[in-house]
Structures are given as structure tokens and as C-alpha cells.
Amino acid sequence: MLFNSAQEDYREVQNVDSKNVHLITSMEKWEAKLLEATQDGKIVIANFSAHWCRPCKSMTPAYCELADKYTSMSSPLVLFLSIST
């Protein structure tokens, strides 16, 4: 599990500049977010990426833009997750 400073480092490495993308750093956090989505009736969109993967990095800005667009509603129905592999 990553601590806050490591999570922020991951945000910078992956260019995750959206607070609407939830970083998954442990199996416990993954299960908690899936439970939250199930209870709230949300759709889960998961992005699996690696810090060394150039295509993953290039996709991150578009993923963040989608997250901002679909979670800016008053009652968001989508939960965006980013999983570092």
C-alpha cells in the first residue's frame, strides 16, 4: 500500500491531475471502492496502467478529462479508478 506522499508521486508520474480519479494502491481499497459503487448503483471505469508504460501515460489526460466531465454532475453515476500495475 502506498502512503500519501507515494500516492502523490504516482499522480505526478502518471499525470493524474483530476481529483475525480481514485487511485487504487491496495486490494483493500479496490474492494472498498467496488462496494461503494455497488451500494450507490455506480458504474465503475477502471484504468490499469504502469508508470513505465508510455501509452498508459499518454492516455491519462483523456481519462482525467472523462472523469471530470462525468463526476461534475450533482449526482455522479460513474466511479473512475486508476490502478497501478
From TrEMBL:
Q: Which SUPFAM superfamilies match?
A: Thioredoxin-like
Q: Which Pfam families match?
A: Thioredoxin
Q: Where is the Thioredoxin domain?
A: 25-72
Origin: domain of life: Eukaryota
Q: Which InterPro entries match?
A: Thioredoxin-like_sf, Thioredoxin_domain, Thioredoxin_H-type-like
Specify the protein name: Thioredoxin H-type
